């Protein structure tokens, strides 16, 4: 099975590769300053009208400066660079630090968090494994923005430390939706082609060897759609469970708060189990003994012990 030929467009100045011609045009205009060719065949009457309008505008005061142009939809490889185009101040605390910032004030905030190879919050002293987690902690807990990437759409306040999360957020805006979904479809298409190539190699290897018994086909549910986390590459059944994973694990969002001690939990079930510590309630009971607990996982482990004991008593003695 032959795969279709892939057409690649290459920039003649920086040799960046693109799969679509319109992506190459946008790259040339945004990064190299090229402008589209003007249309020809302008009528003489239009030229005279523009000349008269210009002569009238000479006596008028100069117009106010126009607002900055809104960022147009572009490929992800250029979008990632455009988000960090204003971050040009490097870190001066450690020579091996690769992070850059918008101004010297944010660079000094970053330098205060340096603790050798690790980082700690300059406000509360909480230690973090890397700078991305420390930056997210400063924003969520203390509302301090050091190097967060902001959505380029005017009026949108979304911020995130990762460009992939900002790119996924751009689906909210109608102008960017087709561009983000197009990249997702292209990624799936390439992944499917790679799987086909691997399957062809496996078929050739099995044909060269002795014939084996055909394996039973695994029937998948047609509603099953596997999702992969872009941060930790963990796989989930659908997008709903993936979004819960990103909110609770990576973004550390814990909306459920205990009214007694102030403990925060990511799930409502965890808060209910925690509240039983304050009330002393143990509603979960074992059917075989007097054991009672407040946690379902503890009850499950207790029942497993009963099953092991029952299996040990029923095993006949060996002669």
Walk me through the topology.
Blueprint: E1 9-10, E2 17-18, H1 21-31, H2 44-57, H3 76-83, E3 89-90, E4 100-101, H4 104-112, E5 114-115, E6 118-120, E7 127-128, H5 131-142, E8 149-150, E9 159-160, H6 163-169, H7 174-208, E10 227-228, E11 235-236, H8 239-250, E12 256-257, E13 264-265, H9 268-279, E14 284-285, E15 292-293, H10 296-314
Antiparallel strand pairs: 1-2, 3-4, 5-6, 6-7, 8-9, 10-11, 12-13, 14-15
GO molecular function: DNA-binding transcription factor activity, RNA polymerase II-specific; double-stranded DNA binding; sequence-specific DNA binding; zinc ion binding
GO cellular component, one term: nucleus
Organism: Drosophila albomicans
Question: Quick one: how many beta strands?
Answer: 15
- Could you tell me the strand content as a percent range? 5-15%
H/E topology pattern: EEHHHEEHEEEHEEHHEEHEEHEEH
Level of helix content? 40-55%
Largest sheet: 3 strands, antiparallel
- Given as residue ranges, the uncertain stretches (5+ residues, pLDDT < 50) are 56-60
Number of helices: 10
Distance between the termini: 61 Å
Main location: nucleus
Protein name: Zinc finger protein 337
Organism: Drosophila albomicans (Fruit fly)
Keywords: DNA-binding, Metal-binding, Nucleus, Repeat, Transcription, Transcription regulation, Zinc, Zinc-finger
């Amino acid at each position: 099975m032959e795969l279709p030929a892939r057409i690649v467009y290459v920039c003649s100045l920086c040799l960046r590769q693109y799969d679509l011609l319109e992506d190459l045009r946008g790259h040339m205009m945004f990064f190299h300053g090229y402008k589209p060719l003007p249309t020809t065949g302008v009528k003489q009457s239009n030229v005279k009208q523009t000349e008269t309008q210009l002569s009238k505008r000479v006596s008028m005061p100069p117009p106010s400066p126009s607002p900055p142009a809104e960022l147009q939809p572009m490929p992800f490889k250029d979008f990632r660079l455009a988000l960090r185009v204003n971050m040009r101040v490097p870190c001066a605390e450690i020579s091996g630090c690769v992070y850059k910032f918008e101004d010297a004030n944010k660079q000094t905030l970053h330098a205060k968090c340096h603790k050798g190879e690790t980082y700690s919050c300059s406000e509360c002293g909480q230690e973090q494994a890397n700078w991305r987690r420390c930056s997210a902690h400063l924003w969520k807990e203390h509302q301090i923005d050091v190097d967060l990437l902001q959505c380029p759409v005017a009026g949108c306040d979304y911020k995130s430390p990762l460009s992939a999360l900002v790119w996924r957020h751009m689906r909210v805006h109608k102008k960017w939706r087709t561009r983000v979904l197009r990249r997702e479809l292209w990624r799936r298409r390439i992944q499917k082609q790679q799987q086909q190539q691997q399957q062809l190699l496996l078929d050739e290897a099995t044909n060269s060897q002795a014939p084996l018994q055909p394996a039973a086909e695994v029937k998948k549910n047609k509603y099953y759609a596997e999702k992969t986390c872009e941060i930790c590459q963990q796989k989930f059944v659908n997008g709903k469970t993936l979004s819960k994973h990103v909110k609770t694990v990576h973004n550390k969002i814990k909306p459920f708060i205990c009214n007694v001690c102030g403990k925060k939990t990511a799930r409502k079930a965890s808060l209910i189990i925690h509240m039983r510590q304050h009330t002393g309630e143990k509603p979960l009971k074992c059917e075989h003994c007097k054991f009672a607990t407040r946690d379902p996982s503890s009850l499950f482990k207790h029942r497993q012990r009963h099953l092991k004991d029952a299996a040990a008593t029923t095993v006949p003695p060996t002669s």
